[in-house]
Specification:
Distance between the termini: 8 Å
Structural class: alpha+beta
Shape: globular
Number of helices: 2
Number of strands: 8
Order of helices and strands: EHEEEHEEEE
Oligomer: single chain
Radius of gyration: 14 Å
Strand content: 25-35%
Number of domains: 1
Length: 128
C-alpha cells in the first residue's frame, strides 16, 4: 500500500472542502477565518515518503477520475481539462488547459491562467 496524503489537512484559505470530512474538529486557522492544517513537520515527513515511493510520477484518483502526475523535483503536476478545472471549483478559461499541482502534501493547487486558481483538500486524493 502506498503512503497516502488523504489524512493530511490543508489550512489554505478558500479551498474546496470534502463533504465527507468533519473540519470542525480541526484547530482554527491563525491567519484567516477557517481551520488550521496538519503540522508542517508531520506533513513534510509524509510527503517525503510519497516522493521516495514515486520517483518518476504517480497515478492518483480524485472524485472518481484518474490522473497521471509527472514528478518535478519536489512536487507532482499534470494537465487537466476545462471540465475538471470547473469540477474543482475554478472557473475554466476558454481555450486553456488547466494544471493540477501537488506539493508538500497539503497544497493541492488547480491553475487555469491568470486569476484562475484554487485549492483542493488533500482528503480528495487517493494515490494508486
Amino acid at each position: 500500500m502506498k503512503t497516502q496524503i488523504s489524512s493530511l489537512r490543508s489550512g489554505v484559505k478558500n479551498q474546496l472542502l470534502n463533504s465527507a470530512v468533519d473540519y470542525s474538529q480541526l484547530p482554527p486557522a491563525t491567519s484567516h477565518l477557517g481551520h488550521g492544517g496538519t503540522n508542517h513537520e508531520i506533513s513534510g515527513k509524509v510527503f517525503k515518503k510519497v516522493l521516495e515511493e514515486n520517483p518518476n510520477g504517480m497515478t492518483i484518483e480524485i472524485m472518481g477520475e484518474k490522473y497521471e502526475m509527472s514528478r518535478n523535483k519536489d512536487y507532482f503536476t499534470c494537465e487537466i481539462s476545462g471540465e475538471d478545472v470547473k469540477k474543482f471549483g475554478v472557473s475554466p478559461k476558454k481555450g486553456r488547459t488547466g494544471l493540477l499541482v501537488i506539493q508538500g502534501g497539503t497544497i493541492i493547487s488547480v491553475y487555469n491562467g491568470y486569476k484562475g486558481s484554487g485549492y483542493l483538500c488533500p482528503s480528495f486524493i487517493n494515490i494508486l
